[in-house]
Design goal:
Blueprint lengths: L3 H29 L5 H22 L8 H24 L5 H23 L6 H19 L11 H23 L5 H20 L7 H34 L1 H6 L3 H14 L5 H19 L11
């Protein structure tokens, strides 16, 4: 179809795919940034992210005020987001970017479903339970690796990445509560500002304001995480989602692990283990099955 309306959905599908690639790329950049203290990188990521959101809020003529009903959930979201980012960046000091980019985005929706069932009175039918078990088995396969070694569970990157996925699942539920009375941009501004405030005391011993020692590569990495994967990716995602619908948009989230593997291969020279590919595919299929059976609690895959 050559009409404007025929081309329009393809344009927004392309925007959605670009947003997913920007999030997948964050795993490559996090690996590049692994030489810097995680708390310093996270601190500047959120400072830059908060500053970049101010013009968007002004253009949208949105108030910067934080409604009383959203304060607790926004603060809890910021705490979870700060912890997640420190874990995410620390894990890259031990493991590969492509591996992390598959394991966390495929595990956190599964953990989110488990939290919904355990604490939010969400009932699981047999189909949903089977999907969750299958998805978690996919995660176990990824962690075991080609050697099928149980000792892999104790490797630092696996412990940290699994914890990161669980924390992000908690963040998903807190963020859903907070955004009942906040737009995604005002929510992102406040969580970024609060994250920066929470992380500053942790970052100070590592010299976050020692600009000469940080160097240009640091600012490129922090800038990508804040602007490309943060403000740019989020804006693209929600702009496209508003046109193609939330259900279709959610299916694009699984481009994140695919793009993380491809970009890690291209820019880091990482060759993915077959267990990452197969285990990730199993987990993705399980989450899609759970989502289509009417389950709630699916998280996004931003990093």
């Amino acid at each position: 179809m050559s009409t404007k309306h025929g081309r329009e959905p393809l344009f927004f599908y392309a925007l959605m795919a670009l947003a997913m690639v920007s999030w997948g790329g964050s795993w490559v950049v996090a690996k590049w940034a692994s030489g810097y203290p995680a708390e310093v990188t996270a601190f500047w990521r959120f400072v830059l992210n908060a500053l970049s959101l101010l013009p968007i809020l002004l253009l949208r003529v949105e108030s910067l005020s934080l409604p009383r009903g959203a304060r607790l959930w926004t603060i809890l979201s910021a705490v979870a987001l700060a912890v997640y980012n420190v874990l995410f960046l620390t894990a890259m000091k031990h493991g590969s970017g492509g591996y992390g980019g598959v394991l966390v985005p495929t595990l956190n929706p599964l953990f989110s479903y488990v939290i919904a069932a355990a604490f939010l009175s969400h009932r699981l039918d047999r189909r949903m339970l089977a999907a969750l078990v299958l998805g978690l088995l996919g995660g176990v396969l990824q962690i075991l690796g080609p050697a099928f070694s149980l000792a892999s569970f104790a490797r630092p990157e696996n412990l940290i990445l699994t914890a990161a996925a669980a924390v992000y699942a908690l963040l998903t539920h807190a963020s859903a509560r907070a955004q009942r009375s906040l737009s995604v941009f005002r929510y992102s501004f406040w969580t970024s500002a609060l994250c920066a405030a929470f992380l500053l005391p942790l970052a100070l011993p590592s010299g976050p304001f020692d600009f000469p020692s940080l160097g240009i590569p640091f600012w490129v990495d922090a800038g990508y995480l804040a602007l490309a994967a943060g403000t740019f990716g989020t804006t693209l995602y929600f702009s496209a989602a508003s046109r193609i619908g939330a259900a279709r948009a959610s299916n694009f989230a699984f481009l994140v692990p695919v793009s993380a593997l491809v970009l890690a291969f291209l820019f880091l020279g990482e060759r993915p283990a077959w267990t990452s590919v197969v285990g990730g595919a199993v987990s993705v299929a399980a989450v899609l099955a759970a989502h289509r059976s009417g389950g709630r609690g699916q998280s996004d895959s931003r990093s």
